[in-house]
Amino acid sequence: MIAWPAPFLPAVPGSGPAVRVHDTATGEVRELNPGPVARLYVCGITPYDATHLGHAATYVTFDLLGRALRDAGHEVDYVQNVTDVDEPLLERAERDGLHWEDLAEREIALFREDMTALAVIPPDHYVGAVEGVPSDVEAVTKMVASGAAYRLPVPAEEGGEGHDVYLDLAAQPTFGDVSGWTRDQMMEVYAERGGDPDRAGKRDALDPLLWRAHREGEPSWDGGELGQGRPGWHIECTTIAIDHLGIGFDVQGGGSDLIFPHHEMSAVQGEALTGQAPFAQVYVHQAMVGLEGEKMSKSKGNLVLVSRLRESGVDPMAIRLALLAQHYRTPWEWTDDHLKVATTRLERWRSALSVVAAPDAGPTIEQVRAALADDLDSPSALEAVDAWVERTLAWGSDDEDRSESAPGLMGRSLDALLGIRV
Ligand code: 5CA
Ligand code: ZN
Asked: Which residue among 41, 42, 45, 323 has the greatest number of ligand 1 atoms within 8 angstroms of its CB, and so is best to mutate?
C-alpha cells in the first residue's frame, strides 16, 4: 500500500559515527554493522483508532535511527507493516457498526497525515497484512509439511469445520532468545497480548497461532491446503520482514509491549521457516509512553491523539521536539508541560536561526551526531543545540568571529539529523 510523502533531506557536510543501540536480546548497547544498506523492520499500527503519542514516540524513534544510519553513510531499506486484519480491528468495527476495511482505511489515512506532519521518513515498503496473506499461506503450508507446525480441528462450538494451525515451540531451540523471559513471565502476559493459552489440544499453551480456520462472520482467504481462513498476528511480520529484507536483517523495532509475545514469536517462526537464525541482528524497543499512571493504549482509551493536537493548532514540530526530549528507553508520561517546554524551545531555536550570523555550527553538529549515534540519545542532542542557541542569542551585533553560514548550516542539520524543520 502507499505510504506517505517523503520529507526533503538536506545534505550535511561530513558524516556521523557508527550507530550503537540497545539490543533487547543481549541486553547490551551494540554497534550496528549493516552493509551498505541497513535493513530495518518496524511494527506498524493496527488501524482501529488514531495515532496517539505512544505510537508517535515509536515511529519518531525509529525515524531518528534511520536518519543516524543515513548520516553514517548507509542507505536504509525500511519496511513497516499495517495490521489491517486482526481481532482488535474486527471488534472495534463491529462495535461501531463499520465495515472493518472502511475503519482500517480511515485510520491509515489519518496515520499517514500524522506521520507527514511529524516529518517521519516513510518506509520503502509499507505492507498490509491482507497483502501478505498469500505469503503467509505459503509459509504456514511449508511449516506444516516440515513438521514444525501442527493442525488442530476447530472446536464443535465454533462451527467445527477446518483446522487451525499452531507452531510447535518444543521443536524450536531459539524460543526465548529475544525476550530472555522466564516461562512464568511469558504466561503472565500471553492472554492479554493476543495469545490463546487455554485453547484445548495445543501441545504447549504458548504455541502461537499461525492460521485460523474460517469462522462464521469473520473475513477469510483461500489458504489452499490450509483451507479457508486468515493468518495469525505474528506470522504477518515474519513473512513481510523475510520477503522484503531477508532473514538476518539488521534491526527489528517496535514498542516494548511487543517484546513478548510478538517479537519472540515473529523471530522463532522465521527461524522455523528458514532454518536460519537469528531472525534479526538486534531488537530495539521504545519504552511505553503513559498517561496518568497507565500505558497509553487504544484498548484503555486514555489517549492523546496527534491529530487532535494538530487540529487544536499545535505545531507538529513542537510535538516532535517534545518526543525527542525523552530518551527512547525511559518510560515517561505525557503531560501538557512537555508540550509547553517544547514550544518555548522551538521558539528560541527559531529566533537563533533567523540571525544573520552566529557562532560556528560545526562543533555542535558533531555533538548532535555523537549523541544520536550513542543509543539515540536525543535529549543530549537537544541540549547541545540549546547551548548553541543560547550563545547565538547572547551575541552582540559587533562580536567578532561570527559566521554568516552558521544559521543556515545549523538549520539544515537540525532538519536532516533530528527531523526538526525550524
Ligand atoms: N500492529 C501491531 C504491531 S505488528 C501493533 O502493535 N499495533 S499498535 O497500533 O498497537 O501499535 C503500533 C506501534 O506503537 C507498536 O510498535 C507498539 O509497540 C507501539 N506502541 C503502542 N502503544 C505505545 C505506547 N503507549 N508507547 C510507546 N509505543 C507504543
Ligand atoms: Zn509486528
From this structure: 45
Predicted pLDDT at 397: 59
Residues 168 and 211 in one domain: yes
Which ligand is closest in space to the CA of residue 331? 1
Q: Is there a domain that residue 207 lies in?
A: yes
Decide: pTM greater than 0.85. yes
Strand, coil or helix: 257: helix
- Taking the C-alpha atoms of residue 113 and residue 101, their distance in angstroms, rounded to an integer, is 19
Q: Is residue 14 part of a domain?
A: no
Same domain, 284 and 324: no
The total of structural domains in the chain comes to 2
Residue 391 belongs to domain with CATH number = 1.20.120.640
Q: Where does residue 57 rank: exposed (0-12), middle (13-18), buried (19+ CB within 10 A)?
A: buried
| Cell numbers standing for residue 266 | 515473529
pLDDT digits (tens, 9 = 90+) for 213-229: 999 999 999 999 999 99
pLDDT at residue 302 in the model: 80
Phi-psi region of 188 (alpha: psi -120 to 50; beta: other; left: phi over 0): alpha
Return the ligand number nearest the Cα of 280: 2
Residue 400 has pLDDT above 80, yes or no: no
CA of 210 to the centre of ligand 2 (A): 14
Decide: 253 and 41 in contact? Cβ < 8 Å.
yes
Domain boundaries, position 355: 319-328+337-418
Same domain, 366 and 277: no
